[in-house]
Amino acid sequence: MKRDIPFSKVLLFFITLLLAGIHQAAAQGTRFFRISGPAATTITAFNADGTLVWSNTMVGTNYTVQTVSSLPGGTNWVDYVQLPVTSSVNTNLIFSFNPPAGMVLIPGGAFTMGNSIGDSDILDAIPTNVMVSAFYMDVNPVSYSQWQAVYAYATNHGYNFVNAGLGKAANQPVQAVDWFDCVKWCNARSQSEGLAPVYFTDAGLTQVFTNGDDAPETAVYANWSANGYRLPTEAEWEKAARGGLSGQRFPWGDTISESQANYYSTNFFIYGLGSTNFFIYDLGPNGYNTNFDTGGYPYTSPAGSFAPNGYGLNDMAGNVMEWCWDWYAPPAYPVGSPYLGGTDPHGPVLTPGPGSLRVWRGGGWIHNAGILRCASREAVDPSRAVLSSGFRCVLGP
Fold this sequence. Notes:
Blueprint: E1 13-18, E2 30-36, E3 42-46, E4 51-55, E5 62-68, E6 78-84, E7 89-93, E8 103-106, E9 109-113, E10 128-132, E11 135-138, H1 144-155, H2 179-192, E12 199-200, E13 221-222, H3 234-242, E14 264-265, E15 268-271, E16 275-278, E17 287-288, E18 321-327, E19 342-343, E20 358-361, H4 369-372, E21 378-380, E22 389-390, E23 394-395
Parallel strand pairs: 10-19, 18-22
Antiparallel strand pairs: 1-2, 2-5, 3-4, 4-7, 5-6, 8-11, 9-10, 11-23, 12-13, 14-17, 15-16, 18-20, 20-21
Helix pairs in contact: 1-2
């Protein structure tokens, strides 16, 4: 660690962190961090638990931790996390040296959620500032082998699933699972590891959700203080997908090609009565990803087939769509919607009924580039299970 060293005339400061030997999911070689803000600050400690202590800040402003992979000559600094300042002395967890197996820390902070780039065809994601607390997220979508192991435990401990789940290979994502299957699986994963389940069938949080999901209006309640596995909220998912970047279409930038994600490339789509809008950000080549379009549907891909995003997460765009906890609601947004801003929104407060929809994010191997954008939202019947549906889990810090 280096501290109290001015990086440039605009009063930037930096710390260095060598990740060699850290958990493989989190290790990405040498990483350097610096703090950028409206005035000089002082880094007083970078602790063994990954917390950064810094002071002499301007209260009521935002500072940004940025990262780069090499110095000297490190000019490609990218945003890592934005930290709103409420005190002159601050302690923030920005990295985890020992995350749960197969997970990485998503650092707590603020981000701009929604269609901040102004794409004209995204009408249900008005940009707003959201604060999200730190959490852990699976590096990869839940694999078929992971699914099968927990599924076997669950069905031997009183759980019932509508869909058994499918997978093209052990190291490829499970698919053909509905929202209810996923939240029950989260509960079973928690219990198999001695953690408290999150999901219940009653508002009093006394009946663990293990059975009964044959209708979209089935009520499920979350115990947000439980330490078990759960689906990400929509705000958590988008913050994680962006990997610290802001104002970009995808987790890595503004354009997409088959070298970056597993999706169905096409540079056009049809609106209404034949008008055409070209996907100028899709660099193709057109069609299914040629690295994986063999052996029959689904054309999913193995974990780690593409470069991770800034937080070390794979497949936050493409491969399989991912279920979120939230009920879907377009503008005008109801109470609880993350598009109203605030801290740790859990989604709209709705009474489930026929036609109630949950949120899908990220796009899959069968979807066009537009659906893979970080701000794109899909509203889906939670009892729907298709060959492009999957999920990943999160844990509290």
